[in-house]
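User:
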Amino acid sequence: MELSTFELLVKPIAPRNGDLTIKAVARRVVQGYFLTISNLESVDLTFNLDFFISIPDSADANRSLRDNAVLIYDIAGNNNFIPLIEIVTDRQFSGSFVLPAGQTASVELLPNATLFTNADPMFEVRGYVSLTLPALFNFETFRFEPQRKMPVQVLLNPEIRGTFLPNGYPQDLGGDFDQINYSLAIASGKALNEIKPEKGFPIWFELFNPDVLNDLRTKLEFRLQNASPLAKAQALAELSAKASTTSSNAQNFGELITNLTIPG
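Assistant: Predicted structure:
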């Protein structure tokens, strides 16, 4: 489901064009996206968050999430970092996490801390967020299978939270450190939502071609990142055993394994 918009910022609140009057009050704002999500089901569920960003007019590192943002979640303990994977170049970034039955988590997309110490930061990214319930890889049936037969219920509350830092931060640690916090409109118009499970699908190596390798690699990385080391090894062994032996397919399969980064 399409969830909400988002906006990440690390930049002055007003242009600093040399006017000392403006420069004196042009504090910098650090702003992140926060999602509170509750799993109302009686089973653990794996969710995907996709962040679709507005494509900049030109190649500008300050308008991309690449190397500029981190994805974090916590339930009732320490923060856990979620790999933020670039699905479509400078367009779609995704991460997945497991939410136990009946639990509530805070999932946060935040600017990278290295941006805070930039003397003149101009980081600004906006877009929209999609929440899905992906099919998971079943090592016994060797296919991706839906997590549930019916839609699952969740409670959602997306927010923007930010902090105003002094203009000369980090050298200047004086002045006000104000904060902002406001809820975002949910696309469905309500906090209680149903997420439809992604349909299952088999892996057919006979159908492989170079155009689909990147998509499959990304899906495998997502589905295997929460598996045990033994399960990951078994998955690669089964992939090798079930691959077609045709020369063209063997080449494509080899490229898949070479490019596949199995999460540790």
